[in-house]
Amino acid sequence: MKKQKYIIALLLTLFCFYSVLYASQNRENPPLNNKKRCLITIAATAAKGDLSTLKDALHKGLDAGLTSNQIKESIIQLYAYAGFPRSIRGLQTLMAVLEERKAKGINDPTGPEASPIQNDQPKYDRGKAILEQLTGAAEKGPKTGYAAFAPTIELFLKEHLFADIFERDILTYAERELVTVSVLTSIGGVEPMLKSHLAICLNVGLSEEQLQQFIIIIKSTVGKKEAIVAQKIFDEVLANRK
């Protein structure tokens, strides 16, 4: 009898210990919240051109508490990776969804507009500084690769993508990177860029567990093939960090 009580007490102690440990780990690596999950689905389906699924994703995003400006910003950003046609069709779908909800008496919050940029530095320097912050590495030495071959696109990248777009404060860097990897995964054929941005995701505070969750969302909303590619590239990113 005493032995049984001892075993039960020991099991309860172990259970409490592992419960506390599990809770602690979850606090350190919380799952993606509902808003971020919705941003992934919105960006991925808009980039894919799956407007029917995008419409459902927009309803869920608004129901989850995303403002129309946050959603609008994510769809605007995707044009830099998937082109104007996909972005414009995404915005048109968002307009239709907002009108539909308004007709039903649902008044979705617009949310704050982007704050004015208070920075007198040249736009190229601002974009370069933001990119260095995202990657965690300073850009030194002469340009190589595509930047040396086509300096104009490197100029556009710094001045427009990382200054004009990423400098806007409607979305955080982590949210913008989730949008970016969602788009890149959906359009396919851009594995080097996807690899770079998955590494950036880790640099801006997203955890391995959250990015694994991102891949699961991609599998369910975009496709198994895209998720397999994303998993392979993410495994390479993790291996390089170790």
UniProtKB/TrEMBL annotation:
Record's protein name: Carboxymuconolactone decarboxylase
One Pfam family from the record: CMD
UniProt-listed Gene3D superfamilies: AhpD-like
The organism's place on the tree of life at top rank: Bacteria
Coiled-coil stretches: none
Molecular-function annotations in GO: peroxiredoxin activity
Domain Carboxymuconolactone decarboxylase-like: residue ranges: 29-91, 157-230
